[in-house]
Design a protein that fits this description.
- By secondary structure, this protein is α+β, with helices and mostly antiparallel strands.
- The protein has helices at 3-16, 20-24, 93-101, 198-221, and strands spanning 31-38, 50-57, 65-67, 80-89, 113-118, 125-134, 137-147, 155-163, 166-176, 179-189.
- It has four helices and ten strands; from the N terminus they run ααββββαββββββα.
- The strands form two sheets. Strands 4-10-9-8-7-6-5 form a seven-stranded antiparallel sheet, covered by helices on one side.
- The longest helix is centred in the last third of the chain and has 24 residues, at 198-221.
């Protein structure tokens, strides 16, 4: 009898000797591992018989076999980055909060936001469009965002529901009756298009956000 036949006969004998109760009990090993020597044709590359390992799973209604060591495919985990900038603005905190709460006005001071449209039937939702030229290419993204429950004169925050994954918050800190500090934090998933320049993306966006706050300070003082 060949080595393959002997191995198969041995496996059949070992599993046949187990009673149904032994096969079903939680204390019984559910996965039995064995090797079947499969002859591989002799050539310049192969000069011997090598075992191929299989796993047969017991204890479930669905029996499967698979090559051990096989790793199922899983999609790559995209990188998230955080950017935070802040600036002192010479307007009362209530004025800064009111100006920033007007989402459709944000493109007037944020250089890379091309449009923000509030949904008429759902005023807590808004559609955003981003258009900017950077890293030698035209960059365009869009997303639907939900404004989370704000804290008047203290915090505005949001998260995207579809499109470009992102979330963020604007916080307001009074410094006196006529000035305040505005802190803007944006977190985003690095788009696949920009993965090759991910290391340069964060400082680039921080400069854009700082420029946006500078323009916001001018906008708020003129309101």
């Amino acid at each position: 009898m060949s080595a393959t036949a002997n191995s198969i006969a041995s496996i059949s004998t070992s599993t046949a000797s187990l009673s149904p109760a032994q096969l079903s009990t939680k204390n019984t090993i559910k996965n039995l591992f064995f090797s079947i020597p499969i002859p591989i044709p002799t050539s310049k590359l192969y000069t011997s018989t090598r075992p191929v390992w299989f796993r047969i799973q017991y204890g479930s209604s669905k029996k499967t076999s698979m090559l051990t060591g096989f790793k199922p495919f899983s999609p790559p985990v995209m990188e998230w980055q955080d950017c935070t900038v802040k600036m002192e603005i010479d307007v009362p905190v209530s004025v800064a909060y009111k100006c920033y709460s007007d989402r459709e006005s944000i493109p007037r001071w944020m250089p890379f936001i091309s449009s923000v449209k509030i949904l008429e039937d759902k005023p807590d939702l808004s559609r955003w469009s981003l258009k900017y030229q950077a890293f030698g290419r035209d960059i365009e993204f869009s997303w639907l965002a939900r404004n989370m429950q704000p804290i008047p004169n203290q915090k505005i925050h949001w998260r995207s529901l579809e499109g470009l994954p992102n979330r963020g918050a604007v916080r307001f800190f009074p410094r006196g009756p006529q000035s305040c500090t505005v802190e803007l934090t944006v977190s985003y998933e690095v788009p696949q298009l920009l993965v090759p320049v991910a290391s340069a993306l964060q400082p680039f966006l921080e400069r854009l956000l700082k420029s946006g706050l500078e323009r916001f300070a001018t906008f708020a003082k003129s309101s």
